Structures are given as structure tokens and as C-alpha cells.
Predict the structure.
Amino acid sequence: MTGARSVDAEVGVCCPAVLGSPLSEEEAADVAKMFAALADPARLRLLGLLADAEAGEVCACDLVGPLGRSQPTVSHHLKVLHESGLVEREKRGTWVWYRVVPERVEALRAALLPRDGRR
Amino acid sequence: MTGARSVDAEVGVCCPAVLGSPLSEEEAADVAKMFAALADPARLRLLGLLADAEAGEVCACDLVGPLGRSQPTVSHHLKVLHESGLVEREKRGTWVWYRVVPERVEALRAALLPRDGRR
DNA sequence: TGAACATATCGATGAATGTCAATGTCCTGC
DNA sequence: GCAGGACATTGACATTCATCGATATGTTCA
């Protein structure tokens, strides 16, 4: 597995609207991957911790404790979130800082919008 | 349910804001279950088909074909969507009609809202 | 250079999940 | 009642995934 495929370089901010029209198999798989990143309690809590941070970012070292999982597990979940584009990472010295990508979250919300005012 | 924070059993309309504050393990598990319902291409397409229906509802018999999966598989996915509260079902005679629950979708969108205007 | 620390990756394992064929349940019409 | 159709459930199988311990990589500092 060449890990060369950095997602946030390739994933645009916009995504097809789930409720706007029937999705093709391909589109559905793409959006599903984003939702899958949120389909785990640990990752939801991580996202909440990041969003709640005063500084807008959190050091990975400060996420292991509150999550109550091992360091490799937290690292794994952060990787999933990062690959989904919902989170970005920045290495500063020994530490790695993570923060939410608001545009990506907003894109997710937009995907849940119906096409018109129909209910 | 021990949560005073009304994660609201399962079928309630409201749900805790993922980005509003760090979620407890219990809350996170509950919300994660909702996102998990969307973390599959087949179910996303089902939801799209329902949302796109002119009549606002679709007979299960009209979902098997477009999805390209077996009838038991479609039935399984519809069950997952229904149990998440995103979809409701109504049996009329031999057929079962499914439709999106807009309030639940909106609740999901709300869960992705940051607590304040912070970015 | 080496010790200490932060993070990522690897390998293994148990659990959850998507899928289908076979079967069961319920309804309608004869 | 009986036959046939619509939908759900069951059982089996392969795949994916969350988790952890062990280990590797990379950085700082003495």
C-alpha cells in the first residue's frame, strides 16, 4: 500500500447531495466513505474534542487520555478522519496538531439537504 | 437510559450536537449509530431514491430493481434505515411503503453544527 | 551520539457487517 | 381453503473493522 494518496489534496469541498437525487454507485460510495468516518463513537468524540478546543486545534497527545483508548487506536482513528478530509493535521516538532476542516463538515451537511422545498 | 441529556431513546427528533461539545461515550454511540446507517452506498442510494420520489414514498417492490441487489439484501438495508429513524414504513395490503423522515435528517444536519460562530 | 518521548505502522484477533439462497409469514384473490 | 405474490427472517460465508501489544520512525535535548 503506497500511502501516497493524500486525500485532502484530491477531495474537493463539495459533494453530491444525498437527498437531491438518486446517487450513482460511484457517488454513493464516495459520500458513504465520509459518513463512515463518523460511524464510530471514538471518532465522533475525537471530532467533538477538536471542535471544542479553544485554540481550534488539539495535540494528538491530548486526545489519548480523554478518549480512553490506546495510543495506536487513537492514531488509527485520527488517520481515518484525516483520510476522509474532515480533519487536517500539522506536524510541529515532536507533536502533531489536529483540527476540524469546517468546509468539509459543511459539505456533509449540504449532502443532507433535499433538492427542493419538498417534504 | 441514564443520560439526562436526552439522547432521546432512538426515535426522537433531537440529538446531541457532535461539534457542540465533546460527547460522552454513550451519546457518541447513539449518534454514531445514525451515521452508520448512512455509511453504506446501498443505503445512501435507497435514501436518495426515497427522497426523489414524486409521491414522497416508494413501495419496497420498486427499490429492488434500481438497487441491483437481492430482495433480502434490500429488505435488510431498509430495516437498518428504519431502525435509525431516518425512514418510516407503512404497510398497505401486500405492499410496504417507505418514506424519509425529514425531521430526522434535519436533526442529523443539526448535529454537525458548531456550537458558536467559531471557525 | 545516545536517551527519552511522540506518533505511526505492523500483526493478530475477535466482533460486526454486507450479501445471497432458502425459508417463513402475511395478505389477496380465486 | 388454497395458490401465488410481497416482504421479512434465518443461516452461512467472506470481508471489513476496532482494538491492542510490539515495534518502527522521527524529533528534541543533553
